[in-house]
Structure formats: structure tokens, C-alpha cells
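C-alpha cells for 4-hydroxythreonine-4-phosphate dehydrogenase. Go.
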Amino acid sequence: MPAGRPAPVALTCGDPSGIGPEIAVTARAALGADLSFVWIGDPRHLPEGAPWAEVATPDGAHDVPAGVLPVLRHDFPAPACPGAPDPANAAGIVAVIARAVDLVQSGAAGAVCTAPINKLGLKKGAGFAFPGHTEFLAHLAGVRRVVMMLACPELRVVPATIHIPLAEVPQALTPDLLEDTLRITHAALIRDFGIAAPRIAVTGLNPHAGEGGAMGHEEAALIAPVLDRLRAEGMNLRGPLPADTMFHAGARATYDAAVAMYHDQALIPIKTIDFSGGVNLTLGLPFIRTSPDHGTAYDIAGRGLADASSLIAALDMAHRMAAARGD
């Protein structure tokens, strides 16, 4: 990589029948040449008339004029019909993700940003055996456990358990899982966000954090011992705290990230605070991965209604995290 030219972010196409291609074009127009990224996909899937230029390597994105989308071409078997995913393209979607990981692991790209996919569509069309992006990326990287963080300027929040039924959360929430989640979050705050001494607030599982056992025992039996052990190592941890009082502005000012016990406990606050600008991060990988915090939006694909704010925020965060790491 030439001196003074950071490796561009590799942006995957996601499901080409969703809003991924159109928001990539919008993001390039909004960001111009200030933040270099390369879109990996089939240019036939871009909106008609969208300005794009093919590049041979990610570094070629630096030489593409502002407003023109740099494209690392990846041909697909079929065209894309907005709102109507084609199973024939499923294997191509998966291959683009793997290609982006190869590029970032080789140093040709500085980070990976993934556009939304449809997990069921990939399963039906390509035998995709993973619940989603996060698990597939962990598989490609050979990592045992990763952590999902949702971030916006006002809040960073991590759910310890993710896409499982609420009834299964108490069984899934083990001391090992909680400890790994806290360690990975703590390390990422230092390495990727430049916070030398992170402050982490931790929710309880039950209402009022169990209220001394009147509303549940997981706080005393499971959560508190893990926090005590990690505090003894020097981590700045608060909790277990009642989740219903952790996310107002005054409370958020007292910590750098919050760790919650389950999906909605974590995601409702951030989607209320910043629905359009939230970013999904995967912590614990040997490379940086961000993603917009929304889905394929088939219902509005191709209609010019898609909001690129979350993708723009995801690209910007990937760029800043790479700078923090020195990648």
C-alpha cells in the first residue's frame, strides 16, 4: 500500500435484490473521496445510470473520482430484480463475503463492511449453514466466539445472548459466555475505540436486577460473581444494574459501553436513540467488520426510498476503527 493511502474498506454487495446496491451508490455520493471504499459485486445489479468504475484491486479506489462508485467486479449468474431475491444468486452473495474477508486478511482492504443479506434465502439457494453474517465471519476467521455490538454516537451496547428465544436466555447465559463477552468488549474498546480505561455498565437479567432475589436469582448467582472476578483483575465494571434505568442520557454519560443480557434489552435502547444511524459491529475478529443496522428492505428496494444513513455511519466507523488500530 503506498505511503499515506490507507487501505480502502471492502463493502460487500449483500443481497442484490435488496437496497444494498442503491445505498452503496448513495453513500459514495455522500462521502465523495473523503473515505475510500470499494464495492464488491456485479455492476449489472447497480441502479440504472449509476456512475461506477471498475478497479482491479481495492487500492484502485483511491484513483476513482468522487461521486463515482469504485467496483471490484464479481459476476453473478442472474440479474437482480428489486424486491424479488433470486436463489441463483445466493452462492455469489456468500462468495463476495468470503472474498472481502480474504482481502482484509491479506491487507489489501482495511476493514469489511457488509450490506444486508437474507439468511433464509441463502440457506435455500446455497445451503448456507450459518445463522447470519456474524457466525459465518467467525467461521472464516477461525474464531471460537465473537460479540455483536450496536453503536451510535450516543451509545454502544452489546447483547450477551443474541438471536435465541427469550425462554432460552437463562440457560444460554453461562458464566463463561458472560466473561468472554465482557473481555472481548473491553479489549475492543481499547483497541478499536482508543479508550484507555473502559467503563462498562452491565444489566441484570430480571426486572430491577432481581431486586435482591425477589424477582430472580441470576444476578446474585451468575452475573455478580463474574463481575467481581473481572473487577479483581482491574476492569471498571458497574452492575448488575436495572436495565430500565441504564439508558437515559444521564446514565449513558457514566459508561463507555453497556453489556445487556439479551437481544431486545440491548437493541431497543439504541434503535430508539438512533434508528437510522446505528452500526452493527462484530468484535473479537482479527479484522474489523461493520454493517448497517437494518435488513434488505425488499419492500422499498429499487424505489428510491432507501435511507443510506446507517451504511454511511458503518463505513465511517470502519474507517475510524482501522485508523485506531493502525491498519
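The mean pLDDT is 94.
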